[in-house]
Amino acid sequence: MLQLLFAVAFSAVPLTLYIPPIRSFNLFIETVETIFRQTALYTIGAFPRVRLAFSRIFSSFVHL
Q: What is the pTM of this model?
């Protein structure tokens, strides 16, 4: 059991190198929030059109 614990612990250590420090997340999160704010207006308007397009496509399949 102790060997399994060591195996899991030492295999997880290299994964910590891929996780950036917390201070690097602030800029990333700010950028993601900015992108969401800028694209929100387009996605709100595009959603009804996409829904209408899919309903027309599916209705044409049903009527075949």
A: 0.39
